[in-house]
Amino acid sequence: MISRRGTVATGSLVLVSAAVLLAPVPSRDGDGTERTVRIEASSFAFEPGTVRVNHGDRVTIELVAEDVVHGLHIDGYDLSVTADPGQTARLSFVADRPGAFRFRCSVACGSLHPFMVGKLKVGDNWLLWRAVGLVFVAALAGMVMRWD
Ligand SMILES: [Cu+2]
Question: pLDDT of 100-141, one tens digit each?
């Protein structure tokens, strides 16, 4: 049997969950934070292999070719940059498309060149915070259930 207190608690939790889910989304074409990411390319890997930025960021990628000529092409954004050995090449763009994009070496640099890939993750901040909020609500719900 569900107690009256339990019903009230469950009702409040539903309301809190709804609030978390429906909270207004902050404007996304706002500030455009400047972000510089240094990626070191050597045969046959990018370091770091995964780059995370926020939707709307103004991103500058500094591609450093450690050994031979390497390139970096971002699928989905269709952007490329090539760096000579020991040199740094820069590529600037606005991360205006959210999602996960593969980037790969665009210069045939050796036998394992086709496997020289990395990932660019363009995320929405609010999605993360919303998820955090839901986890918090779930934890609260678990505690309330135990009290009953
Ligand atoms: Cu290559």
Answer: 999 999 999 999 999 999 999 999 766 667 788 888 888 888
Tokens of 141: 């719900």
Q: Indicate the pTM of the whole model.
A: 0.68
pLDDT at position 49 is 97
**Residue 10 Cα distances to 23, 95, 136, 145, angstroms:** 20, 40, 15, 9
Distance 90 CA to ligand 1 centre (A): 17
CB 21 within 8 A of CB 45: no
108 CA distance to ligand 1 centroid (A)? 4
Q: How far is the CA of 117 from the centre of ligand 1 (A)?
A: 9
d(CA 78, CA 40): 20
Determine the distance separating the centroid of ligand 1 and the alpha carbon of 58, expressed in angstroms: 26
